[in-house]
Amino acid sequence: MFCKNCGKEIQESFKHCPFCGDEVSSAEKPAVNTVPQQTAPQQPQEEVSNLGGMKVLGFFLGLFGPCTLITPIVSLVLYLVWRDDKPKTASAIGRFTIIGLIVGFVILIAVAAIFAVLFAVHATHSIFSFFSDIVFDIV
């Protein structure tokens, strides 16, 4: 017997098609010699088994982007190569590269701010100690 929705062959004992989930009623069960409906050929589905790895790769390519400046270019090349053949993979690596770049720039700005504060504190301490040495040498 064949599913009326997707046209795939299923066992007569099934109440729901295992492929599309459509309900199969007993009235729809055909006679013994029926021909399945012709369906349009389906496009091959993209293999997405390693999509998580591509997300991690994109994130780290973006994360180190503010420091190295070459890693986002690698990610852009991967996106352009996979854009037509593997659109889900290309989208994942592109999206997570942008997220990684944002996180990388935030970290870079935070580290720069911390170093600026530490430098200011050290410089202020040095200036006060310089002037205190001068003042105490005069007295």
Structural key phrases:
single chain; about 140 residues; mainly alpha; 4 helices; rod-shaped
Radius of gyration: 32 Å
Oligomerization state of this entry?
single chain
The average pLDDT is 77
How many separate domains?
A: 2
Note the run of SSEs as H and E.
HHHH
- How many strands? 0
From the spread of the alpha carbons, the general shape counts as: rod-shaped
Instruction: Note the total helix count.
Output: 4
Class derived from helix and strand content: mainly alpha
Describe this entry's structure for a reader.
58% of the residues lie in helices and 0% in strands. The protein is mostly helical and 139 residues long. The protein has two domains: 1-37, no CATH class; 51-138. The model has no long low-confidence stretch (mean pLDDT 77).
Question: How do the strands and helices of this protein lay out in sequence?
Answer:
Blueprint (H helix, E strand, L loop, with lengths): L50 H13 L1 H4 L2 H12 L4 H52 L1
Helix pairs in contact: 1-4, 3-4
